[in-house]
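Run log, item B.
One chain of 168 residues. Sequence copied directly from the ordering sheet:
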Amino acid sequence: MSRFEFCEQNYTISNFKQNWYQKLFLSKPLDEHATEKWNSCEYEAEVPFTRQWFCSADIGECEEVEITVEGNSEKPYEEFVEMADCILKQLHIYLKRALEYLKQFIPAQKSGAYYLSTVTFGRLLNFDSNILAGFTLAFVYGDYPNAFQYKVKFNKNGWPIGFEGGPL
């Protein structure tokens, strides 16, 4: 991604709900004890939690971009599947917006060195402790061991609401 211009055809995923929904896998916790607790109806009633459903796709020059959708242990939440369907159709617009946003706050970094790694749909915790429905675009900048990850957060309407970053 050497410029802020993205070919719409290469940087979109059409019909996510129709073509990709069936490809989503449920993330499982690595800890066996946590799995027992999460599978217990009693525990779910005491402490509500969400699960991540994911798949990967090649998007433009970026290979194996992880797409995650918030849900429960049975299926992804419909609200976030609908959001993913809408946003991924216009992903090129949000990629451009995210990179312009990062360039505004971190002007010294080369814009062509960002690599899209993850697109996440679900609830976001904002800096003011509000929980909002939205999505994030996560980018890796640089090479390991000096790589950084930057996540640009958007509300459900597609406006940037902040970013976070740090070393990988």
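Observations after the first pass:
- The radius of gyration is 17 Å.
- The chain has five helices and seven strands.
Flagged for discussion on Thursday.
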